[in-house]
From TrEMBL, chain B:
It comes from the Bacteria. SMART domains: AAA. This is Amino acid ABC transporter ATP-binding protein. Its main location: membrane. It is found in: Cell inner membrane. Keywords: Amino-acid transport, ATP-binding, Cell inner membrane, Cell membrane, Membrane, Nucleotide-binding, Transport. GO terms for cellular component: plasma membrane.
Length: 319, 244
């Protein structure tokens, strides 16, 4: 009889190993005399932006109403024209009846604004989504072309896949931006997305092709024998089954794509990594910021793989 | 109804030339049940697959109700919807329920509405005796049940002809009977059928004619009584001595 052993001691060991590693890391950095300043990090996610409010003309403060933290200031110039300003109360520079010169700062208004790291995260997100969707469409079309009976479609798609898979993405991004981008006058975002989606498309094409080929021939034959055309059979019978099979490698490809968007920082698209590096130059806290950047990539990718495995389980209900 | 003339199918793989169907001519009348018998590799399955164009033949002609299969003007999909086919390995669509399996082609090819196709599907499932499994996925069904669903799926298209490619060869012995019963009922109802099978009992009982194939050649074309009791061809005599 097979004995069922308790699993929890091993999980405890795992936690101990992780704690040990973290402790070793902490000790190593403490030897390096690096000053950790995590308190500086939040401002790069979101901060209170200040907008200064200035007087338009030489005038006097004719009216001043304080209300719940803000102050409404009315300025009147010699001609009798009025200017109304609302500023934060604690930034108010004048009192009732004061004279104000043209361009004087009356006060500031404050509002929350997204910091560079959040903007970088947003750029990375939309770059990933747009190139992911385009890559999926390109890959689907190319994958089906590789399975086509038409020799031209087959050859062209094979050449595309081999060219893209055989060259580094970084080189492709440079070529797209500096060569094709210059010739066709493309914006850097367009060049970046084009390079990323063509790169992803080539890999997705191979994933789709292998998935379609893994579906037993009898499935297509059964569909065709019922009178479905080749396209209908592909759409209703083969692709749904193939999709289920290629979901894990497809999810892996999209996770790769999210990470690969960091490469377009070389053509000065301010995505997550580039914003992180810009923040480092002003904050002088390279380690904290780099850890944050890595954490933000994880924040995108962990849910992505969670969604994929959930989808996989839902599609498995017919097994 | 089915007219086959000088049908030739040659497989040429790496220099190995096999004449899988070698100059076969025959015809099937409306309502007739044809059973095709022969040793493995005799070309009987290939012959059957040529009848609905799953296998492209090299020369000769196949026609159903005067519609020529090899004619480039013939819409192969329109041709196939008149010819139902049942496979050895069922080939049900595993990602769809039994009901969806039966409705897909009705909707996509025959353009029937949801209600109409479901009513038709349920009636057919009732007929093959598994109406209670309509909402199940094929993987939950036994082999015999799957094959009956496959028959119902082909029938849902209202075909003029049914082709059976060894429908009981992949089944457990105790499930063969239920599938053969469905086929017998079909024959009684007057369906035109061509069956490739190793079930000699079925051939003797149901067939109007028996075709015997070996090495791609049609060696014997006779009534079951004639074929089983007094086969003329020496190869058919040897074959029957082995299987009976």
């Amino acid at each position: 009889m097979k004995q069922k052993k308790a699993q929890w001691p091993w999980h405890v060991l795992t936690v101990l190993v992780l704690i040990g590693l973290a402790g070793a890391l902490y000790y190593a950095t403490s030897l390096m005399s690096y000053e950790w300043r995590w308190n500086r990090v939040p401002q790069y996610f979101a901060y209170q932006a200040e907008e200064t409010q200035r007087a338009a003309d030489i005038s006097t403060v004719s009216e001043l109403v304080r209300k719940g933290g803000s102050a409404q200031v009315t300025l009147r110039n010699e001609a009798g024209d009025e200017q109304h300003l609302t500023v934060d109360e604690n930034s108010l520079q004048f009192a009732q009846g004061d004279d104000v010169a043209e361009g004087d700062v009356v006060g500031v208004t404050r509002h929350w604004a997204a910091g560079p790291l959040l903007w970088g995260l947003w750029t990375t997100l939309w770059l990933s989504v747009v190139s992911g969707v385009l890559g999926l469409l390109i890959g689907l079309a190319t994958g089906l072309c590789r399975l086509s009976n038409n020799p031209t479609l087959r050859d062209l798609s094979s050449i595309y896949v081999e060219l893209v898979r055989g060259t580094p993405l970084l080189v492709q991004i440079f070529i797209f931006y500096f060569f094709i981008g210059t010739v066709m006058n493309l914006s850097r975002e367009f060049a970046g997305i084009a390079a990323l989606s063509l790169f992803t498309g080539a890999y997705v094409a191979e994933i789709i092709r292998s998935g379609v080929q893994s579906i037993a021939r009898g499935q297509n034959e059964a569909a065709r024998s019922l009178g479905l055309s080749a396209g209908q059979s592909m759409r209703h019978v083969v692709l749904p089954q193939a999709f289920k099979r290629v979901l894990p490698p497809l999810a892996g490809q999209f996770i790769s794509l999210v990470k690969d968007t960091s490469l377009v920082s070389v053509i000065a698209i301010t995505e997550l990594l580039k914003s992180g590096r810009e923040v480092i130059t002003t904050s002088f806290s390279p380690f904290e910021i780099l850890f944050c950047v890595a954490g933000l990539y994880l924040l995108i990718n962990l849910p992505l793989s969670k969604i994929a495995s959930r989808l996989e389980r839902r599609l498995a209900q017919s097994d | 109804m089915i007219e086959v003339r000088d049908l030739v199918k040659v497989f040429d793989t790496r220099g190995q030339v096999v004449r899988a169907v070698d100059n076969v001519s025959t015809q099937v009348a409306k309502g007739e049940v044809l059973v095709v018998i022969g040793p493995s590799g005799s070309g009987k399955s290939t012959f059957l697959r040529c009848l609905n164009g799953l296998e492209a033949f090299d020369s000769g002609s196949v026609s159903i109700d005067g519609l020529q299969l090899a004619d480039p003007k013939t819409d192969i999909n329109a041709y196939r919807r008149e010819v139902g086919m049942v496979f050895q390995h069922f080939n049900l669509f595993p990602h769809m329920t039994v009901l969806e399996n039966l409705c897909l082609a009705q909707k996509v090819v025959r353009k029937r509405g949801q209600k109409e196709s479901e009513a038709k599907a349920l009636a057919l499932l009732e007929k093959v005796g598994i109406a209670q499994k309509a909402r199940e996925y094929p993987s939950r069904l036994s082999g015999g049940q799957q094959q009956r669903v496959a028959i119902a799926r082909a029938l849902a298209m209202d075909p003029k002809v049914m082709l059976f490619d060894e429908p009981t060869s992949a089944l457990d012995p105790e499930m063969v009977g239920e599938v053969l019963d469905v086929m017998k009922n079909l024959a009684v109802e007057g369906m035109t059928m061509v069956c490739v099978t190793h079930e000699m009992g079925f051939a003797r009982e149901v067939a109007d004619r028996v075709l015997f194939f070996d090495h791609g050649k049609l060696l014997e074309d006779a009534s079951p009584a004639e074929f089983f009791d007094a086969p003329k061809d020496p190869r058919a005599q040897a074959f029957l001595r082995q299987v009976l």
